[in-house]
Amino acid sequence: MNRHIGKQTVVFEKPPIIRGAAAIGGVKEGKGPLFEYFDTVLADDKWGEDTWEKAESKLQKEAAVMAIKKANLTKYDIDFILAGDLLNQCVGAHYGMRSLGIPFFGLYGACSTMIEGMAIGAMLVAGDCAQNIAATTSSHFCAAEKQFRLPLEYGGQRTPTSQWTVTGAGSAVISNVGKGPKITCVTAGRIVDMGISDLNNMGAAMAPAAADTLCRHFKDCGTSPEDYDLILTGDLGAVGGDILSELMKGEDNDIRERYNDCGRMIFDAKEQDVHSGGSGCGCCASVLCGYVYRMLTEKKYKNILVAATGALMNPQMINSGETIPAIAHAIVIKA
User: What is the pTM of this model?
Assistant: First the structure.
């Protein structure tokens, strides 16, 4: 029997398997330290399409197709695809997946969407509601900046706390049979709002949600940071990551010795002008489905805890005087 323990955590008796994964990086990401772990690196931001938005849909589709192929399956073997992105009404996923003909669930957890999809997918598989699912997300710097902040042509000055939305995508196929790392546990997040309203300081807005979920995970599971080879967040960047470390230390869960953030890993902070680091749905997705998945399959990581955060707002709400609610979902992956 699968077990619901504590308030927010599910432990699987028969852990679902990440049977295959694929990652795509953009032009800037392909010049970063993780370039060799991407299955494909874009030659230009539009990737042969007319618009940035069409390019993002292509990112989603191609990542899913590659992941399914690497899992030695076909699209006809996939029971459900769970996908989302940052664009209004998740159109990146809708238009990207429309030609595949796979039963589809659209998700929106902002930058937490990849882990949200993997968590729900793992529960579907573990609950015998599916044999194979694909979880897919993406983001695109140009499309996201146009929607959430300012037109690129404006050339506005970026603040030191701002993050660079990753152009990239990742897809993971989760199955009930096969070989690969296993998802042993899911901890669902709660919405946390600390009153921050600065769109250029997402790390500070999201860090408390990550702390809330991680602390709940440790309490529910009876574990501590020392039980994991790596504790990874999706997109807090340098500012948010530092805040999270301090928050966790204050809760007697010091994660600093084994903690990293995908937004710090995907770019070279000294050589690439990304300020506080990377963010976006494609940040966690491309790092997890590229570099981290490789490290798990090679047994260089044996037990990791991944928590991705998301800012659950849009510019209209901020312009109306609202603050930024955030969420973090977490999964445990064992080699």
Answer: 0.95
275/78 Cα distance (integer angstroms) = 39
Q: pLDDT averaged over consecutive 10-residue blocks of the chain (335 residues)? A: 90 98 97 98 95 95 98 98 94 96 97 98 98 97 75 63 89 98 98 92 94 98 97 95 97 96 94 88 97 98 97 86 96 97
DSSP letters, 201-222, are -HHHHHHHHHHHHHHHHHHHHT
Paired residues of 185 in beta bridges: 11, 332
Domain boundary among 142, 175, 208: 175
Read off φ and ψ for residue 307, nearest 5 degrees: -125, 120
Write phi, then psi, for 84 (nearest 5 degrees).
-165, 180
Six token digits for residue 73 = 């399956």
Distance CA 34, CA 40 (A): 12
- Whether 163 and 211 map to the same domain: the answer is no
188-208 burial string, b = 16+ CB within 10 Å, else e?
bbeebbeebeebbbbbbbbbb
Q: Which domain holds residue 325?
A: 182-334
